[in-house]
Amino acid sequence: MKVGVTGGMTESHSVSMPARKIASRPFFERLELRAGKIDSLLCVGLDAHPSLLESPGPEAAIAFCRRMIESTACSACAFKVNSAFFEAMGGEGVHALRTVVASIPDDIPVLLDAKRGDIGSTSEAYVRAVFDVAGADAVTLSAYLGRDALEPFLSRDDRAGFVLVKTSNPGADAIQGLRVKGGEPLYVHLARWVSGWPEADRVGMVVGATDPDAVSRVRQAAPHQWLLCPGVGAQGGDLEATLQAGLREDGMGVLISVSRSLASASSPADEAEALRRRINAVRESAAFGRPEAGGRTGDALARSLVASGCVTFGDFVLKSGKSSPVYIDLRRMASFPELLARAAAAYRPILAELDFDCLAGIPYAGLPIATALSLQTGVPAIYPRKEAKGYGLRAKVEGAYVPGQTAVVIDDVASSGESKLEAIRRLEAEGLRVKDVVVLIDRQGGARSELGSLGYGYHAALKLEDLVAIWRGAGWINDRQVEQVLAGVVD
Fold this sequence. Notes:
6-stranded mixed β-sheet; TIM Barrel; 2 domains; 18 strands; 19% strand
């Protein structure tokens, strides 16, 4: 007995299932396209739990899931199908699972919640079961056996895996919270390790919304990965705190997964839309507004700079000779790997819009930032020396490059454009082309107009006026000090 496409029963030994038309582009690119198209980070869970079905069996499971799909598709960035409830029905359940997945519109990514991970040949069989039989786009994975156990799942350009990092069950800390070398929890170590895999662009992470602090620590360890956060609703996860802790600097990067509370709502469609709006209310807040020309506020990063000592408050004399109640020293970021990675991630939405072949970090603060960006993006990094070597190859620009290539200049902050122009001249003297300069913080001292007048694009992840507003809101500086800091702002 097999389950047919319509949910009815048939005596045939094989069933022809309609296949989802999965675009050849990478999974996370498709996910972001869907998120942008409908302005949603909501992942609707399809858990065919027996208590939610009108009657036992695969036909009722199909009917239940189809009702959920039809009522929530307008608000769903993705669907997550729990395979366990289907597998428990035997062979008919597997066919029911295939039918449910095939019922989901082609442009909506489908995650299979199956928590796979085993030795090579077994994992290869699971890959076929998940992607070829079930038809899913992505699958949840357990990394306990090591990276080699997950490589088969990450070998396809158009599919992906979400590795279990910090789960939402009460007993998770017994293993996941164990302290490893250096004193950090095992789950943080795991997140950092996974984010450095060669297949990292096909990997997301599962972090329960029941522990927003863990979400924050994972985000710092893995600045650009997508996080799948279950636990909102029936398990009591904090939606707002999870988003504030996990959203990337571009306001993306978190999938809020909700299952039972949606399924039990009197109107799943209304509840899904309400959740989508709640999520977007947080994204539109001061801390996580959508990117705008000239940068965005970056509340979490602004606070991390203070916590690390990269920004200090007091009475300082700047290089210009002026007094300031704020001193910014981003060279310290090299001592804080998680902050450095988070800061580098803030450059990436800007760099995605530019044309270049290599990253040129300006000594000294720009060097670790360019290196972090190179590790995150795979783009080669070079740097212009402050002075040419008087021995050996007498290099003026260090690193592997070819004259004629385009370098994007990377630095930490900018007041005027003077130091950036010095670096550009050294790069251009060696045959490199420069079209753009990107910094983390724009002090708004004239760099934009100075560089722009010479034909160079100037981009900043954060503006000084936005940062001081955040620091003022936190009570670290007062109104008079804000006025003092902004007195030199010219653009």
